[in-house]
Amino acid sequence: MEKLPRVVVVGAGFAGLACARALKRAPVQVTVIDRRNHHLFQPLLYQVATGGLNPADIAAPTRSILRRQRNAEVLLADARAVDVAARQLRLDDGSQVAYDHLVIATGATHAYFGHPEWAAVAPGLKTVEDALEIRRRILVAFERAERELDPRRQRDWLTFVVVGGGPTGVELAGAVAEIARHTLASEFRRIDPDRARVILLQAGERVLPSYSSVLSRSALRQLERLGVYVHTGVRVTAIDEEGVSIGRERVQARTVLWAAGVAASPLAATLGAPLDGAGRVLVTPALTIPGHEEVFVIGDVAAVSREDGTVVPGVAPAAVQAGRHAARTIVRGLRGQPALAFRYLDKGSMATIGRAAAVAEHRGWRFSGPVAWLAWLLVHVLFLVSYRSRFAVLAQWAYHYATYDRAARLITATAASPTGGAVAPSSPPIGLPQSP
Fold first, then answer.
1. Which residues participate in catalysis according to the annotation?
2. What is the pTM of this model?
3. Quick check: helix, strand or coil at residue 250?
4. Which of 14, 61, 167, 251 lies at 20 to 30 Å from 34 by C-alpha?
């Protein structure tokens, strides 16, 4: 029997999974490798972090997704390096996986702009583990405030800082504000959760900088209606267990969440291909690396230039399109046909802010408020990989809308909860109101 060409797909995110599934009927053997055993719907990860959904609502085992694809196998492993000359992928246990075609779709990780020590005190949001840790920190903060007798320390526990005003930061800030104002409103006896302060810090001049200025202003208004204090044009200079420094200004807070930057997966650096400032691979128009038409780089780990000079955004629709394009190119190569340049079809952007609050744009049309929120709900439900997830998420959202309750609020993480301790007095940043 003739041996089929082997396509190794590293990463079971949107891009990698789309590529693997698009090769279902191709005359190839597909091997999907990922360090985790599940595909994660990252756009809804913030809802796990804020108690709105359970991890299983937005994730599904990769083996389950590909169980009916006869030409696909799944390996649970961590890819460490690529030898493009030998066409070998090195795994964490030292073993090698040979390939005829390689698809790198390992996504991105957090970037702390030269301050890796901030990761311990300001977790980002990329994995289920990240979401559970953030959820733990948010819920523990209210519990510690309930036990705290010192008003100043209690205020610090009830202050939440989100660094970064992109979609993730906006969504996190809005959700935390809703938790304080509605979900926990009558559950505590010694504190009033409504006194919690949610502060969003953005280095740029406006939130959602990749959106139009009209939608950016709309997002700002909706955040402010939720009670979020938004500070733009400010750059964080230090973060520790007791707060955030912005130059000479200081925000005392026991919960800091990071949504300010991302960097490409470290695997990209082993390809020997040119990288951009964020560590993403500068791919050819066909999504391959220069000099190696058999190596594709797709999704958040790739920097794909469009005809107008802009870079394809790191969003789920772009990743799915790139995955399908890589699969088509592989099949064309097997047929002796030349590769085609990738053409990204922009389906618009959207971000949710809170209950019936969102912004969206599609081909020149701009929406905000309840209309954008409903569109956001529909699109995100349709993108979920399984019917079970769609029904579960819809049921949870309907329950939350009717009751304001976020049912997934168990503190289950094993990490030690933050400790208290004396907090040195400090003056608040300019314009930041203080709770009594």
1. 171
2. 0.89
3. strand
4. 167
- 116-260 folds as FAD/NAD(P)-binding domain (3.50.50)
Architecture of the 6-35+77-110+262-334 domain? 3-Layer(bba) Sandwich (3.50)
CA distance linking residue 191 with residue 18, whole number of Å = 48
Give SS3 for 308: coil
Alpha carbon distance 272, 281 (integer Å): 9
In the sheet that holds 228-232, the strands lie side by side as 228-232, 197-202, 159-163, 255-258
C-alpha separations of 360 from 239, 353, 364 in Å? 32, 11, 10
Tell me: the pLDDT tens digits for 221-270? Answer: 999 999 999 999 999 999 999 999 998 899 999 999 999 988 999 999 99
Beta strands 302-303 and 281-282, pairing class = parallel
What is the per-residue pLDDT across 121-138, written as a single tens digit (0 to 9) for each? Answer: 999 999 999 999 999 999
What's 311-380 look like in SS3? ECCCCHHHHHHHHHHHHHHHHHHHCCCCCCCCCCCCCCEEEEEECCEEEEEECCEEEECHHHHHHHHHHH
